[in-house]
Amino acid sequence: MVGATNGANGGGKVISLPLQYFCVLAAAVVAVMVLSLAFMSPAAMVAVRQNLGSVAAGASAGSSSNSSSGAELAAPAPPAAAVKGKEQERQRPPVVLFNFGDSNSDTGGVAAAGGIRIMPPEGRTYFRRPTGRLSDGRVIIDFICESLGTHELNPYLKGIGSDYSNGANFAMAGSTVSHGVSPYSLNVQVDQFVYFRHRSLEMFERGLKGPVSKEGFENALYMMDIGHNDMVGVAHTPSDQWDKKITEIVGEVRKAISILYDNGARKFWIHGTGALGCLPALVVQEKGEHDAHGCLASVNRAAKAYNKKLSQLCDDMRFHLKDATIVYTDMFAIKYDFVANHTKYGIEWPFMVCCGNGGPPYNFKPGKFGCGDLCPPEAKVVSWDGVHFTDFGSGLAAKLAMSGEYSKPRVKLASLIHGGSKKASDS
C-alpha cells in the first residue's frame, strides 16, 4: 500500500495516499455541506484543516577541434531580422504569473500548508518524484509556464526552495470561491497576493532585491481556475436555487478581480469550470440522468450555468475596465470533448481512472482505496484518480486552452503575456 508519512524519523502517522485523497475529498464534503450541499467532494484538504498551517550544471565546455573552429569563423553572419528578433526578446520583461485556484492548479500548496509528504506513484511521469500535485505529473499551469519559457510556479506557502521571481501560485486543493467553506477560499488567496505584493515592493523601496518588481506586477498575468468545488455543491441543491447561488459565487469572483485591478493587475486569464458531470468519481458513484456520452446531465447543467454567468461577468468587466484585458476560456468545452470525441485524442476509455481498482472501463470502485490497478505511464488516460487529471490529460487541456480557440476574446495566451491583445476579436 502506497502511503504518506508525517513526522520526523518517519514516526508519525501513515496515511494511504488514495485514502488521503478521499479525506481531502471529504474536506470538500464539509464545504459542500456548509453550502447546504451533499456531495463527498474529491479534494485533499483534511491535512490543511488539521494543520493550517538545478542550477543548470550543463554549461557547455565550448572547446572544439581546429577544423570546427575554422568552420565557425567562416560561418555567415545571421540575418539582420534574426538579430533584431533576439534583441527584442532580450528586451522583453521577465514572465510573471499569479494563479488563484483549487486542486486543478495546486502545485504543492496543500502539501506545504498541511505538512503532507505525498508519496509515489504521484509525480511518477514528469518529475519522477512526488511534488504535492494531485496527479502523476504536471497540472495545466505547469504546461503554461513551460510554454512561456519560465520555471514552474511555486506555491505561496512553500517556503523552502521556492523561487518567486516569476510570481506565485496561491491555489490550494479543496478551495472554493465561497467564503467560510475552505480555509483558503478565493478571498483569502487574494489577500495573500496583496500581502505578497506589499512586501515585495517594500523590499525594493528599502534598496533590497524583492522577488517581483513594480514593473513585474504591472506586466504579470493573473490567472483564475476555481469554482469547481462550489459547483459540485450547487449541483446537489434544488435547481430552483441555482441562479441565486451562482450569482453570489460569481459576485465573489467580481470582487476578487476588482481588488487585483486596484493593485495594478491588468491582464486576466479566467478559466470556466470543466465538465464536472464527466468526472469518473461522479459518473460511477452517483445516480441520475446520464447524457448521450455517459456524463451526469444535472451536474453538467450546473457547470454550464456557472460558466455562462462567469463569461458574462468577464464581458461586463472588460467593458468597464477599459485598460484591462480580461480573457475567459471555456474549459467545459475542452474537457467535455475528451469524452464526447475521445477517439480523436487516442483515448479508448474516456471514464477510465489511472490510479484505481477494477480495470476498464472505469477502474474505480467506491470505497476501495489504493492503486491496485495502475495504468502504464505512457497510457492515454485522462483521469488520474477519478477527479484530477493525469499529466497526459493536463497536457491536452493546456494546449487547447492556450490556443485561444476556446477563449473570448480569441487571444493566444502567449500574445497576452507579451502585449498586444487589445485588437483581438470578441468572437
From TrEMBL:
Transmembrane segments: 19-40
GO molecular function terms listed in the Swiss-Prot or TrEMBL record: hydrolase activity, acting on ester bonds
Region (Disordered): 67-90
Keywords from the named record: Glycoprotein, Hydrolase, Membrane, Signal, Transmembrane, Transmembrane helix
Pfam families: Lipase_GDSL
The family this protein is said to belong to: Belongs to the 'GDSL' lipolytic enzyme family.
PANTHER family: OS05G0159200 PROTEIN, ZINC FINGER FYVE DOMAIN CONTAINING PROTEIN
Protein name: Uncharacterized protein
Lineage: Eukaryota, Viridiplantae, Streptophyta, Embryophyta, Tracheophyta
